[in-house]
Amino acid sequence: MEKIQCICGMRDLVRALSQLETQLEENYGVTLNEAMVLCSVGGDTVSAGDITACTGMTPSHASKTIRSVEDKGLLARKLGEHDKRQMYFALTRKGKNCLGRIKEQGVDAPEWLAPLLNPVP
């Protein structure tokens, strides 16, 4: 692939992700990164490191996104039982409801992303 085609492909990918994020914000009140945090936590209690590993965000970016999700009342922070310096996160009732709505109602994958998100078997 020529280098310019790669850049043009990335442009289209970023545009499609922007469309996806707009849907999430309009329908559920969360950004794409916030939705990824909700999905990463699910029904579990996880550490910030687990969220970072699952989302691929940098620790700094994950920390900011976690704080944003907490500020929206979707995520609760708990101290570790054995190590009080360790923080763990779980969805609040509001967070579980939000994630449940996203799973139930979904989002329309932008045309460009559809083959990646819904591969044909």
From TrEMBL:
GO terms for biological process: response to stress. InterPro entries: HTH_MarR-typ (IPR000835), MarR/SlyA-like (IPR039422), WH-like_DNA-bd_sf (IPR036388), WH_DNA-bd_sf (IPR036390). Pfam families: MarR_2. One of its GO terms (molecular function) is DNA-binding transcription factor activity. Residues 10-121 form the HTH marR-type domain. This is MarR family winged helix-turn-helix transcriptional regulator. It comes from Candidatus Bacteroides avicola.
